[in-house]
User: Which sequence fits this backbone?
């Protein structure tokens, strides 16, 4: 990961969450008194925030610190013990977490478990009181199946293909910059990256030069030399993403270097829905453009696919942005920009359907890791009022 | 009986939903950081899609209708699967619902285990299941294949601790009501009692007296005492009585699935009756010598759906609540937390996951979609985040993203300004004006302060 990206996503955003929790915890943890009905008017009725117990957090490799720390902050804030399973793909970070965490957190309450796929399967046989998983939909299914054996509640932050609709009515250069930033951040390995663009043929012709200009603005004439452009995490992923290049036609980029796992910021034009790149989440620095004639056709296409983690829509016309918002369903929605909804932690972050289950960020993380226990503390007196409910029953009551 | 337990609850839930739906469904605008001051940021409540509601047989109407109301309120289509064990109600629901609701959007599926299993292979967008822990696991496993979120309202053994310092007559009357309603077949019935050995016999006496009050001399002939749902459960509950000391009751009649209200004393924690949820009119009493022992006992077992504690001492109640975990709690009564719809109703651990009732139903059956609508212009501020990176950019981003200091700093500036105004006015020789000005400054400060913080 390039330095600035790491500083921003891995460190800054975590600090934000931490401050939020520290500043607000005393408020979040308080018993929430609720409105009462006539019968309970004189009682004390409140929702208590109980910890679940032992929480398991499984983190992925694309933002290995952020996606481990942010849930961890919430889990600790909620009063749980936590077992942390960092990704085995990013070996250095895994080691860092395993060595550093125990020097700050009590080993008896917060344990780090390093494990590969097989060992993680074994880990999941244990009974946890909550499991928080970030990763792919297919592994999400096995995590939930394992959780079902113990009736363990789960939050699954999964993925999908995030569509990015670009209207004919828009400021092309601004759109190009925002989409470029979102797509190529961390070399495309972001669960909320715009996965593919939907636009008209005319817009594609305008977008291509604009995208080319943005890419050059950001990464220079040779992105391979830019310190701000990332690499693919591993050889297997590199090969997987490389295969996807055989879709549509390469309009920008397309160069690869297996040795450094470099794939140039690439834009593929005239991609067909049947092409390989449209069959799975790209998770790499390739932006396919699929042509649709109208906004309605774009909406129909989005709705024919699995519900994604986020839907993006760009238009200078507010109504058009709202149309896409209202007629689609997704984890989240961002109009006229990419990724940014993730940084506002007063918004819940989570998926729907195969893009996930549950949500977090800010107070939502705290709520995710607490059991909201309904409590009614009644009066021992005033027993005569209760007489109405006791047998023998007769009509006049 | 059925009216008050099943129908009143449904009517209440309906009224609540109708009155509040506009406010529940309205987009919820959220606090923004400095970077997004000009944007629209809100949470949109959207339907999940197709919800499956699987009902139970003990309160067959309300346990299908209450979730149905919430699911419809949230804008979903719903497949209703009433329990086949309460066959008559299942048929009633299957006959009536299509007459009032579009059967294409709200179909009723009747059938037993094979039909339900087939139904569960289908993909739903949420499943709400009320029933046993064992089947709950099967439902969740089926849901896992499609990554379907679930709300599981299961069961467990809801403990009922009676403190020495408490009005036994009142406590026992309330417990008797909750335990023996619907012949003990209530998921939140007090399953067993924990109390000091010195009050055990008094507890028995009080419950006996209350039973007489409720059902008369001959329970069997009382109109208000129900029966066990079927022979299978009758035999199951009967089996729990084996080898127990019956302090009261114990009479049974297989033909009518009748089991008399029964109390067991000096029950051992290892006995069969303490292994599974009783779901019948049998009330075991276990003795514990202190609150500590009671708490330890409760914590050594699976987390229950409900927890009950009776005491005149508020501290004892607070202690028991804070040192245990359960779906819900009622102190100094039983069952009642179920009827307050502002409280989320659900289990934890083996007793379930998720919650519903009132607004909680609406939230359970909705997807909270985060929406951020930005301006396509105003590209200037975005330049901070674009590569190529620089230290200056990093510092500016830190300032904008760390919203923490936003309100505080504005507050400090306003305070400084007010101080300045006060100082200027102080210099005025006219004392009347001075005093009025001072009051004005103080008033503004007092009014403005909480809002700024």
Assistant:
């Amino acid at each position: 990961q390039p330095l600035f990206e790491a500083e921003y996503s891995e460190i800054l955003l975590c600090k934000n969450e931490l401050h939020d929790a520290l500043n607000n915890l005393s408020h979040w943890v308080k018993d929430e008194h609720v409105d009462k009905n006539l019968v309970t008017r004189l009682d004390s009725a409140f929702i208590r925030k109980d910890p679940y117990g032992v929480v398991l957090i499984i983190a992925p490799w694309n933002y290995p610190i952020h996606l481990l720390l942010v849930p961890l902050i919430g889990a600790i804030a909620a009063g749980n013990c936590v077992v942390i399973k960092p990704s085995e793909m990013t070996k250095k970070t895994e080691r860092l977490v395993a060595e550093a965490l125990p020097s700050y957190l009590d080993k008896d309450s917060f344990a780090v478990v390093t494990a590969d796929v097989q060992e993680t399967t074994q880990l999941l046989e244990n009974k946890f009181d909550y499991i928080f998983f970030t990763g792919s939909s297919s592994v999400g299914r096995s995590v939930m199946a394992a959780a079902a054996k113990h009736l363990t509640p789960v939050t699954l932050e999964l993925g999908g293909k995030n569509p990015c609709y670009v209207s004919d009515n828009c400021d092309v250069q601004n759109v190009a910059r925002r989409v470029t930033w979102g797509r190529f951040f961390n070399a495309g390995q972001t669960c909320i990256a715009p996965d593919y663009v939907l636009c008209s043929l005319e817009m594609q012709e305008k977008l291509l030069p604009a995208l080319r200009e943005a890419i050059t603005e950001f990464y220079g004439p040779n992105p391979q030399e830019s310190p701000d452009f990332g690499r693919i995490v591993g050889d297997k992923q590199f090969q997987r993403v490389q295969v996807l290049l055989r879709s549509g036609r390469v309009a920008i980029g397309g160069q690869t270097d297996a040795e450094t796992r470099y794939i140039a910021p690439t834009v593929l034009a005239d991609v067909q829905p049947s092409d390989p790149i449209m069959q799975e989440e790209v998770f790499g620095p390739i932006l396919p453009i699929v042509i649709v004639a109208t906004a309605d056709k774009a909406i129909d296409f989005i709705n024919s696919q699995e519900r994604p983690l986020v839907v993006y829509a760009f238009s200078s016309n507010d109504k058009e942005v709202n149309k896409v918002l209202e007629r689609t369903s997704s984890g989240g929605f961002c109009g006229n920009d990419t990724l940014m909804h993730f940084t506002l932690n007063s918004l819940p972050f989570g998926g729907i359907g195969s893009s996930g289950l549950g949500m977090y960020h800010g107070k939502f993380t705290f709520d995710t890791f607490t059991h909201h226990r309904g409590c009614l503390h009644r009066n021992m007196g005033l027993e005569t009022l209760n007489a109405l409910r006791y047998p023998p029953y007769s009509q006049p009551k | 009986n059925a009216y008050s337990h099943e129908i009143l609850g449904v009517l209440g839930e309906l009224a609540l939903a109708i009155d509040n739906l506009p406010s529940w469904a309205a987009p919820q605008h959220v606090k923004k950081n400095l970077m997004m001051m000009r944007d629209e940021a809100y949470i949109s409540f959207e339907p999940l899609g197709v919800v499956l509601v699987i009902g139970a047989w003990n309160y067959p109407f309300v346990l299908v209708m209450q979730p149905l109301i919430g699911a419809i309120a949230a804008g979903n289509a719903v497949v209703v699967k009433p329990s086949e064990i309460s066959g008559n109600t299942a048929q009633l629901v299957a006959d009536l619902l299509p007459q009032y609701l579009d059967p294409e959007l709200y179909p009723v599926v009747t059938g037993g285990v094979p039909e339900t299993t087939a139904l569960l292979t289908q993909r739903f967008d949420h499943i709400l299941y009320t029933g046993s822990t064992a089947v709950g696991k099967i439902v969740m496993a089926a849901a896992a294949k499609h990554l379907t979120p679930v709300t599981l309202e299961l069961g467990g053994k809801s403990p009922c601790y009676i403190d020495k310092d408490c009005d036994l007559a009142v406590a026992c009357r309330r417990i008797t009501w909750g335990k023996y309603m619907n012949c003990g077949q209530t998921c939140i019935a007090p399953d067993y009692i924990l109390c000091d050995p010195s009050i055990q016999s008094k507890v028995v006496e009080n419950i006996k007296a209350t039973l007489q009050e409720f059902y008369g001399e001959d329970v069997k002939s009382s109109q208000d005492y129900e029966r066990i749902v079927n022979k299978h459960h009758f035999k199951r509950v009967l089996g729990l009585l084996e080898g127990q000391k019956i302090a009261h009751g114990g009479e049974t009649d297989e033909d009518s699935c009748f089991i008399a209200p029964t109390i067991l004393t000096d029950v051992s924690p290892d006995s069969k009756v303490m292994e599974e949820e009783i779901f019948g009119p049998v009330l075991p009493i276990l003795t514990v010598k202190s609150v500590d022992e009671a708490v330890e006992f409760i914590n050594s077992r699976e987390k229950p759906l409900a927890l009950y504690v009776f005491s005149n001492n508020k501290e004892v109640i607070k202690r028991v609540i804070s040192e245990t975990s359960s779906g819900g709690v009622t102190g100094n009564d039983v069952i009642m937390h179920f009827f307050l719809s502002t409280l989320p109703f659900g289990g934890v651990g083996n007793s379930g996951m998720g919650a519903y009732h009132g607004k909680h139903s609406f939230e359970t059956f909705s997807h909270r979609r985060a929406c951020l609508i930005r301006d396509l212009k105003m590209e200037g501020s975005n330049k901070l985040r674009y590569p190529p990176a620089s230290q200056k950019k990093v510092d500016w981003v830190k300032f904008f993203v760390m919203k923490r200091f936003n309100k505080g700093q504005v507050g400090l500036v306003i305070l400084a300004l007010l101080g300045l105004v006060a100082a200027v006015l102080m210099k005025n020789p006219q004392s009347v004006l001075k005093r009025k000005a001072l009051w004005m400054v103080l008033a503004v400060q007092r009014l403005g302060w909480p809002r700024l913080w």
Observations:
- Chain A has a mean pLDDT of 94.
- Chain A touches chain B through 103 residues (CB under 8 Å).
- The radius of gyration of chain A is 25 Å.
- The first helix of chain A runs from residue 3 to 28.
